[in-house]
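Re: beginner question about structure tokens

> Can someone show what the tokenized structure looks like for a real chain? I only ever see the sequence side.

Sure, here's an example I had lying around. Input first:
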Amino acid sequence: MSRTPSSHQHAANVLGALSLAVADRMNTAVEAIATLGPSAPAALAAMHEFLDGASVTQLSSVLGLTHSGTVRLVDRLVAEGLAERVKAQDGRAVSLVLTRDGRGTAERILRAREKSLASALSALPPDEIDNLAAALDTMLTTVTRTRAEERSARTTDRPQPWLCRLCDFTACGRNEGNCPVNNTITTGTSS
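And the corresponding structure tokens:
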């Protein structure tokens, strides 16, 4: 006897397939620009959007990499002229900053990301995109809460990379208070 999946099961399954397809497509697009491994595009985008001048430890946290893995990634970024190490304001630590080439590469990464994601929306009319955006905000709020609870309860030893590591802060409306991830973390509620 065949079982008919519920609409919830169907939606969850289709979401999983779509998530993989969109992520694969986006990763292929951005990794073609920064050919220094799968974490390089996120490192450059994060430094461009919110992390320029950060420490290796801060970058490691955002990317969900070990400290040694992040050091190796930074070594590659520096060797390619995309980033440089500078003395931090306290004089004891080192800050990571993008070079002009690094900033340009990060901007190309963000444009490639946007193009690959926009193509996934191309079949939808504007009103369906608006409805999808509202549903995605709700889903991101739930995912963000769950991740924050896991971190505070330390229910996983695996480092979790930040959800915003490849985000375009202008597109998400972070500065206007429209980012569901930032709103959930800073206020504990959604926008």
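Each token stands for a local structural state, so reading them left to right follows the chain. The mean pLDDT is 87.
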